[in-house]
Amino acid sequence: MGGKRRSFTREFKLEAVRLVTEGRQSVAEVSLKLGIRPDMLRAWKREVGGAGDSLKDVFRGHGKVPSQEAELRRLRREVERLSTAETAECLEISEENVKTRLHRARALLQRELFSLAGANGNEAFQFLGTRCDRIVARVLERIRRFSPECD
Questions:
Q1: SS3 sequence, 63-84?
Q2: pTM of the predicted structure, to 2 decimals
Q3: Pair 59, 13: CB distance under 8 Å
Q4: By C-alpha distance, which of 24, 27, 51 is closest to 37?
């Protein structure tokens, strides 16, 4: 019967692959030295080889977040909840400066999103005149029907 399944850190996997690819050791030698199965090391090597030059997304895990990443996410959520006054105090700048930076960042993000979507603000949020007028008329009619004192 198999025991508890072992898990290895991203750094361990990358180092094991590096020993095989950059060193003069075979997969069998490295796996024996590290106490892992040769087929596991071969799979890691294939995954790294398929990533090309960017190793950023290699061995990201399956939902298990490393503690450092989890802490970074927690801090980001905490910063997002700060008021402009609290942000100004943390950054040691005026509250007006914080508002200006926030406005500029939102405008930049909006422009970037529109460019990615291949649209501009006018196309993305069109006012559909007659359709909107019909909807407003129906809503007002229902309000009048249920609230005669609104007339």
A1: CCCCHHHHHHHHHHHHHHCCCH
A2: 0.39
A3: yes
A4: 27
What is the gyration radius of the CA atoms in the chain, in angstroms?
29
pLDDT digits (tens, 9 = 90+) for 17-75: 888 888 788 899 999 988 899 999 898 888 887 766 666 667 766 656 567 877 888 88
Query: For residue 23, what is the DSSP state?
Result: S
pLDDT tens digits, residue range 86-116?
889 888 999 999 999 999 999 998 888 878 7
Domain borders along the chain are 10-50, 67-119
Measure the CA–CA gap between 118 and 147, rounded to whole angstroms: 45
Q: How many Cβ atoms are within 10 Å of 31's Cβ, its own excluded?
A: 20
The number of beta carbons lying within 10 Å of the beta carbon of residue 17 is 23
Is the distance from CB of 97 to CB of 88 less than 8 angstroms? yes
Three-state DSSP at 87 gives: helix
In angstroms, the CA 55 to CA 63 distance is 18
